[in-house]
Design brief:
This protein is of the alpha/beta class. The protein has 4 domains: 120 residues, Response regulator (Rossmann fold, 3-Layer(aba) Sandwich), CATH 3.40.50.2300; 171 residues, P-loop containing nucleotide triphosphate hydrolases (Rossmann fold); 70 residues, Helicase, Ruva Protein, domain 3, CATH 1.10.8.60; 53 residues, Arc Repressor Mutant, subunit A, CATH 1.10.10. Helices cover 47% and strands 13% of the residues. It has 19 helices and 16 strands. The strands form 5 sheets. A 5-stranded parallel sheet has the order 2-1-3-4-5, sandwiched between helices. Strands 7-10-13-6-14 form a 5-stranded parallel sheet. Helix 2 runs parallel beside helix 3, helix 6 packs across helix 7 and helix 13 crosses helix 15. It is elongated and about 90 Å long. The two termini are 55 Å apart.
Length: 470
């Protein structure tokens, strides 16, 4: 038990008060006592105890009246009632007015102790919830101010995640690995950690690892000196230097080639970078947050990702829950994006009817929050009235696992693939079509298809898994 926990005992029987006070002091609590309600209120004003134990029946002022006065004077003080025979209706009334527990006369001192243990746990949980709510409010405000979006969701899973973000934000140098399916908001989580940390007034720099050609890796990450190679017409700062003092976010870290992973690991260990063409190294103070939608530990076991880099990055891991596992957040997200797009398109007053919301609640959202946002944006554009109907909600016809890899005899029409999909500017649908076309042109050779798409084969493999092209 916490030795600093302070407890006020109030009962008009001096013998009973003395007995409880002696017992609690032996348990290393700070104890105050009173045999009259007026004296009890004076102590509450001076000491603000963590817990007050009140007898229901006292002369001058009942325990119920004293409870109400204590809650007005010191709302943080939690109250335990001592009830006599036949007082249960009063106890129920007291619980409604803010008491958290009770024990009945005649009682054993062990009953008093159990009630205090239960109340202390209640206090701890309340403080944790207050801390998470405060962190969530601060986080939402900072994200809105800096990048114009918020982290939305009141589910238990989201509450736990915000708590973890808040904790790791207080350790400015700890590497963080953010894991989650495509569309869950990994970069948003990284932004949140940055803006909750002491680095918030410094640079947040985001890098898509799948978009970096191997030949440019060192130059982009570490910089180069003028004349270091053909085309190096001036000194160039690398991303570690640009983000010095702040946060470097490495998205799709699984797509980084193994050779470059070793170079990244060295910088993370030494916290020094050397420009290409320079013999000098420079200290950098950067927190690295990496993200992936694949199982890095499994890739490491398959020798497709460096195990030592995985351990270095995964000092603190945050798993973002997919939307289908936190369906209670769907209505909140729908309201948020509906309001946002209605304002953006000048269609204020829009709302989802029950049937449209039911349709959203029944859907698995393989593209997670990003897909929900796109669905709402499209629905707002389609809607000409004040109410979004089920007909405005256009959901994917594909299974949760996406389309299957085209088999022989089920060739893709090359002319059709090269066109935009029926859904118009649907990024994921058109990306899927481009991959199919590249694979067909390359005879289903992943390396050749990746070269046609100007990405690494690891990036292609990741996207194929994303769309279920097995």
């Amino acid at each position: 038990m916490d030795k600093k926990l302070s407890i006020l005992v109030v009962d008009d029987e001096q013998r009973l008060v003395d007995e409880i006070e002696e017992f609690l002091k032996n348990k290393n609590f700070r104890v105050f006592s009173a045999t009259h309600p007026d004296k009890a209120l004076e102590l509450v004003k001076k000491q603000t105890p963590d817990i007050a134990i009140l007898d229901i029946r006292m002369p001058g002022m009942s325990g119920l009246e004293l409870l109400q006065q204590i809650k007005k004077t010191a709302p943080v003080t939690e109250v335990i009632m001592i009830s006599g025979h036949g007082d249960m209706n009063t106890v129920i009334d007291a619980m409604r007015k803010g008491a958290v527990d009770y024990f009945a006369k005649p009682f054993r001192l062990a009953d008093v102790y159990k009630a205090i243990v239960r109340t202390q746990r209640f206090i701890q949980l309340s403080n944790e919830l207050k801390s998470v709510k405060s962190s969530r409010d601060i986080l939402s405000k900072k994200l809105l101010e800096n990048i114009g979006v918020q982290l939305i969701g009141n589910s238990k899973a989201m509450t736990e995640m915000v708590g973890m973000m808040s904790k790791v934000a207080q350790t400015p140098n700890t590497s963080v690995l953010v894991l989650g399916e495509s569309g869950t908001g990994k970069e948003l989580v990284a932004h949140g950690i940055h803006y909750l940390s002491s680095r918030s007034n410094k640079m947040f720099y985001s890098v898509n690892c799948s978009a970096i050609p191997e030949t440019l890796f060192e130059s982009e990450f570490f910089g180069h000196k003028k004349g270091a190679f053909t085309g190096a017409d001036a000194d160039k700062e690398g991303w570690f230097e640009i983000a010095d003092g702040g946060t470097l976010f490495l998205d799709e870290i699984s797509d980084m080639p193994l050779v470059q992973q070793a170079k990244l690991l060295r910088v993370l260990e030494e916290r020094k970078v050397s420009k290409i063409g320079s013999r000098q190294s420079k200290h950098v103070d950067v927190r690295v947050i990496a993200a992936s939608n694949t199982n890095l530990e499994q890739l490491a076991n398959e020798n497709k990702f460096r195990l030592d880099l995985f351990h270095r990055l995964s000092i603190f891991v945050i798993n973002i829950p997919p939307l289908r596992t936190r369906r209670e957040d769907i209505p909140v997200l729908c309201d948020y994006y509906l309001t946002m797009y209605a304002r953006q398109f000048g269609k204020t007053g829009l709302h989802l009817n029950k049937e449209a919301l039911d349709k959203m609640m029944a859907y698995d959202f393989p593209g997670n929050v990003r897909e929900l946002r796109n669905i709402i944006e499209r629905a707002v554009i389609l809607c000409d009235g004040d109410v979004l109907q089920p007909a405005h909600i256009k959901l994917s016809n594909n299974s949760r696992h996406g389309e299957q890899f085209p088999q022989e005899g089920n060739r893709v029409d090359e002319n059709r693939v090269g066109e935009l999909s029926d859904t118009g500017l649907d990024l994921e649908e058109n990306e899927r079509r481009l991959i199919l076309k590249a694979l067909e042109k390359a005879g289903n050779n992943k390396s050749k298809a990746a070269a046609l798409l100007n990405i690494t084969w690891q990036a292609l493999d990741r996207r194929m898994k994303k769309y279920g092209m097995e």
